[in-house]
Design a protein that fits this description.
alpha/beta, glycine binding, 4-stranded antiparallel sheet, Aspartate Aminotransferase, domain 1, oxidoreductase, 14 helices, glycine dehydrogenase (aminomethyl-transferring), pyridoxal phosphate, Aspartate Aminotransferase, domain 2, 7-stranded mixed sheet, globular
Length: about 525
């Protein structure tokens, strides 16, 4: 076995680079097939498709025609199909098992949503069509916007942001526009709690602000005395995640809102965890001025893989005039997209995207809302909190909870239960792979040492949670009983074994190159 810089087993030296079992002749194990890279399977001198030679028509690529062979692998259709099917079997998916990633809300996406998103008129709508030909799509956007405002009790929403961080950017740009309109260009300090999402300070800096961190108290929430001490005439606002990244509701949120407003600043609330309170709490009632909503989390549209996402941002009355274009308005029985700043009411800070958002995400989210109804959305939030507290209660006797009391939608543990075992949070997570589970979020939030953040979501049954908790309980007891090798060598049953994480991060191999022929020694 190769050893990494921490002295832990890395990939076996003779294992296939693409991941193969070493205890079989084929490299496969049962239905788990060894599969090399497509460049290793295919040959550059053959192709699975016969294309005719160009007819002699002049090229119209402006002198950028290809000068040499591309080097793409050639595979027959069955080989290509098998390649991607075999790769798909190496993926962990929500359709395969529980996805315990915290702060990510990896929950089941109802197939009804997918069916509706594929309806003609939604799936094939083009952003450059005349507005008269897409009235149904505009009505859907308008109706979804209406319910987002109802659920948050806010008067305005920008639908165009494409994801959570994009929604944050939208909110902070509106805050900057409002401050500039007031002539208060000296307000550039943004208060950011330790328990905020990591994108919050990055977004603030992107908008020309600088961040001032607020520590957490012993309960994992904003330290109110520290917060009050940081208020001043240069404060632009606060970026607060609620429920926060520790999976806890900020009990003093109303007082925080009142104090930041008295100081002349604005309250940006990160709504990434809105799924824990939707139908139970209206953020507008708590005094927020801007909040993004991850449609791909709270309302069950697909999440992960780099997109598509959607992060509509709601605004209070104070920030509504600065919301960006475009937005949808209703004029009698007709819907219209206000696309230009000079057509808009108020003083929009500008435009964030070329068009008007993610139509597929809008369709799925509204489908989710309409199929659940107000009572169903409320129950989904309650069940998400119930499931997380069930996990917390089931595992508290063998794993150490980061904070006392109950949680919201996430159960947060630290690594104290592993002290003296020689097993780290990373080792524990790798052992979960051998048990058939995707690991929970590790080492985040940073305010908790060796953090293990688990979000079961509302879509898991008690039987599913019991099986998961039984597995984690077994692993915790194994670690405490000295079965260290079980963890430091994990994962043993996955095609790709333990990697040298440090080397992979510092020296990633981003391009495959053909192996060089080794010269044979003369006899």
């Amino acid at each position: 076995m190769a050893m990494n810089t921490q002295g832990r087993p890395s990939r076996p030296l003779h294992a296939h680079d693409a991941g193969a079992y070493t205890d079989t002749f084929s490299g496969s194990r049962g239905l788990d097939q060894a599969e090399p890279l497509i460049f290793e399977r295919g040959r550059v001198d053959v192709t699975g498709v016969d294309l005719p030679e160009p007819s002699g028509a002049p090229l119209r690529v402006g002198g950028l025609e290809r000068k040499a062979e591309i080097g793409l692998p050639g595979l027959a259709e069955p080989e290509t199909m098998r390649h991607y099917v075999r790769l798909s079997r190496k993926n962990y998916a929500i359709d395969l098992g529980l996805y315990p990633l915290g702060s990510c809300t990896m929950k089941h996406n109802p197939r009804l949503n997918e069916k509706l998103a594929r309806l003609p008129g939604f799936s094939d709508v083009h952003p450059l069509q005349p507005q008269s030909t897409v009235q149904g799509a505009l009505k859907l956007i308008g109706e979804l916007a209406h319910w987002l405002m109802v659920l948050t009790n806010t008067p305005c929403v920008a639908m165009s942001p494409k994801a959570g961080a994009h929604g944050e950017l939208c909110g902070m740009m509106a805050i900057r526009a409002a401050l500039d309109a007031r002539g208060e260009t000296g307000r550039r300090r943004v208060l950011v709690p330790e328990s905020a999402h990591g994108t919050n300070p990055a977004t603030a800096v992107q908008c020309g602000f600088y961040c001032d961190e607020i520590p957490a108290d012993a309960t994992g929430r904003v330290d109110m005395e520290a917060f009050k001490a940081k208020l001043g005439p240069d404060v632009a606002g606060i970026m607060l995640t609620n429920p926060n990244t520790c999976g806890l509701f900020e009990r003093d949120i109303k007082e925080i809102a009142d104090l930041i407003h008295e100081a002349g600043g604005y309250f940006y609330c990160d709504g990434a965890n809105f799924n824990a309170i939707v139908g139970r709490v209206r953020p507008g009632d708590l005094g927020i001025d801007a909040m993004h909503i991850n449609l791909h989390k709270t309302f069950s549209t697909p999440h992960g893989g780099g997109g598509p996402g959607s992060g509509p941002t709601v605004f209070s009355q104070a920030l509504a005039p600065y919301a960006p274009v475009p937005y949808v308005v209703r004029e009698g029985e007709t819907w219209r997209m206000v696309e230009h700043e000079h057509e808009a009411e108020g003083e929009p800070f500008g435009r964030m995207v070329a068009f008007h958002g993610q139509m597929g995400m809008f369709t799925r989210a509204l489908s989710y809302m309409m199929s659940h109804g107000s009572d169903g959305l409320k129950q989904a939030a309650e069940d998400a909190v119930l499931n997380a507290n069930y996990v917390l209660a089931r595992l508290r006797h063998v794993m150490t909870a980061a904070f006392d009391g109950t949680c919201m939608h996430e159960a947060l543990f630290d690594d104290r239960f592993l002290k003296g075992t020689g097993v780290s949070t990373l080792d524990f997570a790798k052992a979960m792979i051998d048990e058939g589970y995707h690991p929970m979020t590790m080492y985040f939030p940073l305010v908790v040492h060796g953090a293990m953040l688990i979000e079961p979501t509302e879509t898991e049954s008690k039987a599913s949670l019991d099986r998961f908790c039984d597995t984690l309980e077994g692993l915790a007891l194994a670690a405490q009983n000295g079965e260290t090798e079980r963890f430091t060598a994990a994962p043993r049953h996955a095609p790709a074994k333990r990697l040298d994480e440090t080397r992979a991060a510092r020296s990633p191999v981003l391009r495959w190159t053909p192996p060089q022929d080794q010269p044979q020694a003369a006899e």
